[in-house]
Amino acid sequence: MFKKIFTGIFILALGLTQADAQSFDDLFSQGKAAYHKGDLAAAVASYTKAIELNPKSVAAYNNRGIAHKSMGNTDAAIKDFTSAINIDPNHKSSYYNRGNTQHGIGKLFEAIQDYSKAISMDPFDDKVYNNRGVAHKDAGNYDQAIKDFNSALGIKPGNANIYNNRGSAKAQKGNLLEAIEDFTKALDLDPQHAGAYYNRGNAYKSLGMNQKAENDYQSAQKASKANAGKSHHHHHQTVFEKRNEKFQDIDKTFRENLFKKQAESFKADDKAFNKNPFNEQAKAFKAEDAAF
């Protein structure tokens, strides 16, 4: 009863008729369903129609921004996340999503600002600390990156990707032995983490431990093939399947790797080892767009 009264007051406050509100809900649901299926253009179209009915819907702007980003329309995505923030300046997810988008196009300073804003609203989100850490690492701020990865691990100590990222930052700073410890910890947690094998191999090679490096490169290749086999037998998780955070009914996630370049292995002196061929495995803790 209370829910119905509240919904009625909300509809009146927006100036919507009951029919408009129902149409908005239908269009919003259609947008989510289309996004689940990977039909991004249809998702954008449905959210656009929903926004026409309710131009104050933070959730519709936020979700349309995610769809735009997944299509590679980064300018449109940033514009939508900004619209959501203008409506609700305390909307953490839109800052986080805009940060992910800025990061993906190399606007590191802007990304760090958005991640910092999101952290100020929720200081217990390991994903935001991790992603800000990757942005700091990409900007060469290795000490700050390590600090962020430490914060992320304090919240979620069992995440192999965060250890791999911290190891990469330590390696880039020149602390190879500490980096090896982190890569080893990542492998303890995930024995099929090809990126951690490859990164540890790079560290061993830089230290002149060539046999250990070769062993790790071979292990990276095997892990990569094993992971590819798993991907072949299982459907990729769709944008909203991975986690159960808030999506207005539940939140999250997008499959796209924002950090294909940013989360590669640390840059080794030897050009032959500058690029990590296992970037699918060595990617940063996947940035997950928060949807509604």
Task: Please explain how this structure is put together.
The protein is mostly helical and 292 residues long. Helix 2 packs parallel to helix 4, helix 4 runs parallel beside helix 6 (92-104) and helix 10 (160-173) packs parallel to helix 12. The model is unreliable at 1-13, 233-275 and 277-286 (pLDDT under 50). Helix content is 67%, strand content 0%. The protein contains 14 helices and no strands. It folds into two domains: 18-123, Serine Threonine Protein Phosphatase 5, Tetratricopeptide repeat (Alpha Horseshoe); 142-292, Serine Threonine Protein Phosphatase 5, Tetratricopeptide repeat, CATH 1.25.40.10. The longest helix has 24 residues, at 210-233. It is elongated, with a radius of gyration of 21 Å.
Secondary-structure blueprint:
Blueprint: H1 2-14, H2 18-37, H3 40-53, H4 58-70, H5 74-87, H6 92-104, H7 108-121, H8 126-138, H9 142-155, H10 160-173, H11 176-189, H12 194-206, H13 210-233, H14 279-282
Helix pairs in contact: 2-3, 2-4, 3-4, 4-5, 4-6, 5-6, 6-7, 7-8, 8-9, 8-10, 9-10, 10-11, 10-12, 11-12, 12-13
